[in-house]
Amino acid sequence: MSVPPPPPSNLLRFRAALAEPILASFIAGGVAGAVSRTVVSPLERLKILFQIQSAGRTEYKMSIHKALAKMWREEGWRGFMAGNGTNCIRIVPYSAVQFGAYNFYKRFFEDGPGTPLGAYQRLFCGGCAGITSVTFTYPLDIVRTRLSVQSASFSGLSESKKAGQKLPGMWGLMVQMYRSEGGLAALYRGIVPTIAGVAPYVGLNFMVYETMRTYFTPEGKKDPTSIGKLAAGAVSGAVAQTCTYPFDVLRRRFQVNTMPGLGYKYNSIFDAFRRILTQEGIKGFYKGIAPNLLKVAPSMASSWLSFEMTRDFFVNNGSQEPS
């Protein structure tokens, strides 16, 4: 008479739950977001300062290395990391929701568990994942932008600093915006151009990465090496950012649209598009793209590599018997 196997322990059930693809991707996505943003924080902030600088402003009209040196002279290490704490608080749930949602949506298109998707299916699932993650975390994104801008040496902003006004932190700024700029709507200002840019960006990112991942996988192997994953992440990020960058500029402009001293007040997306085009030309839609492309390779490469390593750890750990 055979003895029935003992029921699985709580530890085994917990490890099995963490190994579920959606939950493992959710946790790994959060880790990937924090790692990738911290690695490129100075270039991320510099990109934002370039983006929000309108025609006629010269404070940051200089090369990347000179702008970084200016930031270091005026603000030191804190200038390089300005807004990064908020960015990590934002990017952990944002990246977690994005990767988790992608794995959720792709289940509707798989012929079976783990079946590869077609290029357009990856694009669609990635777009849906981008919209989902933005909707959940957008107030943290707009506050991060404000924190990145408020201590910079733009003349109109400097006047308030000279007057002895203490700059608010993340939660203080969020409360201030809510109370003085229109309630909840203030925390979602710029979300329309954001979604318009994020949906194709995230879709392209997933589509190109999974395509390049196959390209960098050695013959006879299931997965690429770590170098191959880094290369695939760098290529996917560069392609996606270049294609959708004008939407990112519009997003940043609207996020600081009500701040004094920046030289513009846009009435609508169409008004912003028209005025940027007439006052700044096509180049206006690509302000900050140089530091952005410099950061995109290490950012997306480290993001995808840390995501896959963390996800594989949970999946493999959940399939092993505890010792």
From TrEMBL:
Subcellular location: Mitochondrion inner membrane
Pfam families: Mito_carr (PF00153)
Solcar repeat locations: 20-108, 117-215, 224-313
Signal sequence annotation: none
GO terms under cellular component: mitochondrial inner membrane
Molecular function via GO: metal ion binding
Listed PROSITE patterns: SOLCAR (PS50920)
Purpose: Mitochondrial transporter that mediates uptake of thiamine pyrophosphate (ThPP) into mitochondria.
Protein name, UniProt field: Mitochondrial thiamine pyrophosphate carrier 1
Organism of this sequence: Eremomyces bilateralis CBS 781.70
